[in-house]
Amino acid sequence: MRHATGISDLGVEGLEKVLAQAIQWKQGPHPKHLVDKILGMVFFNPSLRTRASFEACMARGGGSSIVLEVGNGVWKLEDRAGAVMDGDRAEHIREAAPVLSRYVDVLAVRTFAGNTDDAEDHKDPVMNGFRNFATVPTLSMESAREHPCQGLADLMTARETFGTTKGLPVTLSWAPHIKPLPKAVPNSFLLTAAAAGCEVRVAHPKGFELQPEVQAQAEALAKEAGGSVAFTQDLDEAVKDSRVVYAKAWGPATGGPLGPEAVKAFPAWMTSPEIMAKAAADAIFMHCLPVRRNVEVADGVLDGPWSRVVDEAENRFHVQRALLQWLLEA
Ligand code: CP
């Protein structure tokens, strides 16, 4: 049985297969590949694109979906092994995951990072709880560690624009925010771009390092795919000649020198037309959305010729139906 809770589930081969299928299906009529299939979606956190695009995948493919919002008409769920459940969490994942598996063909979960302990987030306890106790394929709709569907949509967008991602110089740029955000999206962009063979540059102020294990995983994927990964605190140097500038806010490395308020301390890192002008002449701008305008990214970039943020959101639909196919064909 396949799962898709992180890029390591696909590997370089699976990634290439899903991207190729997504690009092919985007050109034609909607395939009816999900007839009689049900996707269960469990949301611990809000969403616009993820929920709408997965519901669209199931409806267009001839299947259907069940959406559960934990704590909103659905029992709050416990994930800790051995927990004494005398609080407000009335049901354990140990029961919830196998029960839902009796109703659906794939179980998708959104569960954000606690964002106070990178090492704990790296263990991805809720997602792995579902993965361990479900009896159908599990799929991440963003967990504490990764957002694989976003990474796939990002790389599909780059590949559509430039024809190939092999050796493509791409910059993942840290961006300011009003609060420290999780690291799942930057992790997934880094890992997916590395697995797609890009020349990946990650730029951030000192103190915003991504988890060392994620960096090491990206380096291994890049080696396998013929790309490269580099980390820098020099944004100008990172964006120079870059074909893709990908902005994303994330919180400081926990246990590092910076506190959570530091996310407001680097306004010069907001992606601006001046920064885009330092990239390649044909550079595109990407962001996973939602985006805080004029905090993370200037209006001039989002409304300018570089922006592919809406195409990128559309591509969530295309990669997700290819990913569902990959999960179900096993
Ligand atoms: N990019 C993304 O996952 O969007 P939502 O949070 O709206 O689902």
TrEMBL record:
Residues 185-327 form the Aspartate/ornithine carbamoyltransferase Asp/Orn-binding domain. InterPro entries: Asp/Orn_carbamoyltranf_P-bd, Asp/Orn_carbamoylTrfase, Asp/Orn_carbamoylTrfase_sf, Asp_carbamoyltransf_Asp/Orn-bd. It holds the Pfam family OTCace_N. Keywords: Transferase. It comes from the Bacteria. Residues 2-160 form the Aspartate/ornithine carbamoyltransferase carbamoyl-P binding domain. Gene3D superfamilies: Aspartate/ornithine carbamoyltransferase. GO terms for molecular function: amino acid binding; ornithine carbamoyltransferase activity. SUPFAM superfamilies: Aspartate/ornithine carbamoyltransferase. One of its GO terms (biological process) is L-arginine biosynthetic process via ornithine. PANTHER family: ORNITHINE CARBAMOYLTRANSFERASE, MITOCHONDRIAL, ORNITHINE TRANSCARBAMYLASE, MITOCHONDRIAL. Belongs to the aspartate/ornithine carbamoyltransferase superfamily. This is Acetylornithine carbamoyltransferase.
